[in-house]
């Protein structure tokens, strides 16, 4: 590069920063070199730059959305063993992972089942898949969110706090049942459910289906109203399986998957 080129390059870098074009900033020198060498028409060079900017932007958007979602790490659909939950259809879960059919209309997904059955894993895995599709998701333990909303209510900012959650197409509330019964605490949950009704989706995991929800909300009328709104447009996945953790531990102890040793053959005879 001769001296005026160097000045152009420095100026271009500044302009690209100012214009917020990180993708082009990353790639322009390499692309310009190729374009010069191969004698690209100017329009082709420009199109290639624009395309790189698009790619880089969507990569950054994905990373931002992944970070804000606070998903527990490592819980993906690929790592989910569907054989362990025969009552759940893999095809149905894959359809849910696309998002369009339910997130667009603010429908809900409810996962019920005993501890260790894979509810949180499946919820996080769906969240991850949806973020890959461009949706925005927040994963939170129900108790944590209730606590935050409760603080907001004390500061007379509950409405604003709930409105702020609107940016998430899907709110994953993990472990609904662990919310303690306390008048002020649990009515914030009701406010949240009402505010999102038919607009923004929720994915709720719980150990018990509705029979026990009277313990979560302050009174029966509110419990019924909350359930009514949640199930109006909802898919319900019942995961009534033994704890995966326990099964894994038992399999390990038994040595399932390993060829039988002389000792085990003798033992079973
Ligand atoms: P729950 O939320 O229903 O109590 P978790 O999702 O926390 O259960 O599952 C407990 C552990 O077992 C987690 O480490 C999870 O990754 C694993 N696990 C549960 N079900 C499955 C499954 N079907 N395939 C793979 N891992 C599973
Ligand atoms: Mg869980």
Automatic annotation (TrEMBL):
It holds the Pfam family IstB_IS21. Gene3D superfamilies: P-loop containing nucleotide triphosphate hydrolases. One of its GO terms (molecular function) is ATP binding. SMART domains: AAA (SM00382). One of its GO terms (biological process) is DNA replication. The keyword ATP-binding applies. InterPro entries: AAA+_ATPase (IPR003593), DNAC/IstB-like (IPR028350), IstB (IPR047661), IstB_ATP-bd (IPR002611), P-loop_NTPase (IPR027417). Keywords: ATP-binding, Nucleotide-binding. Signal peptide: none annotated. Residues 105-237 form the AAA+ ATPase domain. The keyword Nucleotide-binding applies. Belongs to the IS21/IS1162 putative ATP-binding protein family. This is AAA+ ATPase domain-containing protein. It comes from Bradyrhizobium cytisi.
């Amino acid at each position: 590069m001769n001296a005026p080129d160097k000045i152009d390059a420095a100026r271009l870098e500044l302009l690209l920063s100012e214009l917020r074009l990180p993708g082009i900033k990353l790639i322009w020198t390499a692309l310009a070199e190729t374009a010069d060498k191969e004698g690209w028409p100017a329009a082709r060079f420009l199109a290639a730059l624009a395309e790189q900017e698009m790619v880089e932007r969507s990569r950054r958007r994905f990373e931002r959305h992944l970070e804000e979602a606070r998903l527990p790490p490592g819980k993906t659909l690929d790592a989910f063993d569907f054989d362990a939950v025969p009552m759940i259809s893999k095809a149905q879960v894959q359809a849910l992972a696309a998002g369009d059919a339910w997130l667009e209309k603010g429908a809900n997904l409810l996962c019920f089942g005993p501890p260790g059955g894979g509810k949180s894993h499946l919820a996080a895995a769906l969240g991850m898949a949806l973020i890959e599709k461009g949706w925005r998701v927040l994963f939170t333990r129900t108790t944590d969110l209730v606590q935050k909303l409760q603080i907001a209510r004390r500061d007379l900012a509950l409405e604003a706090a709930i409105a702020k959650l609107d940016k998430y197409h899907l709110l994953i509330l993990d472990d609904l049942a662990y919310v303690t019964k306390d008048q002020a605490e649990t009515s914030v949950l009701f406010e949240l459910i009402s505010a999102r009704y038919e607009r923004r989706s929720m994915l709720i995991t719980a150990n018990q289906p509705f029979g026990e929800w009277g313990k979560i909300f302050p009174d029966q009328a509110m419990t019924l109203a909350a359930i009514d709104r949640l199930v109006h447009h909802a898919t319900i996945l019942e995961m009534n399986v033994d704890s995966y953790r326990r099964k894994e531990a038992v399999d390990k102890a038994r040595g399932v998957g390993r060829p039988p040793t002389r000792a085990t053959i003798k033992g079973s005879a």
